[in-house]
Amino acid sequence: MPEAVLLTYDEFEDLGGESKFERRAGVVATETVAAELVSMLGAIRGGAFAPVVFGDGGEAEAVIMSTSQYRQLRGDDEPPAGTIDDPTRRVYASEPLPTSRAMTLDEIAELMGPEAVRDLEDLRRADDEIP
User: Fold this and answer.
1) pTM above the 0.70 mark?
2) Which of 9, 42, 97, 124 counts the most CB atoms within 10 A of its CB?
3) Mean per-residue pLDDT for 52-67?
């Protein structure tokens, strides 16, 4: 069962992580993460872990956080009691909405713009040329 999540700093920043969490100050070196990983996992298990931003040369590249913190970052619901907390196996409702309808490839290309329509026409011409 996963105990921690590793994500890019870009994703953390895009989802508002800096404003949602108090995190360990600064950018931690990769070597420091390697040396402290066991104690970080202990803090995660104990529920007292602040996300850690790390990277080489002081440049933020990735973030380590608990699975619960990752859910909060994404705005996901808490899993029901007794459910294995595994973000990699999370399932989302994927049923069509009542207003959903089938679309043709031409309609999708039109929504994407004139360049997509031209590309689709080019692909169809190329396909017609194949014996």
Assistant:
1) no
2) 9
3) 91
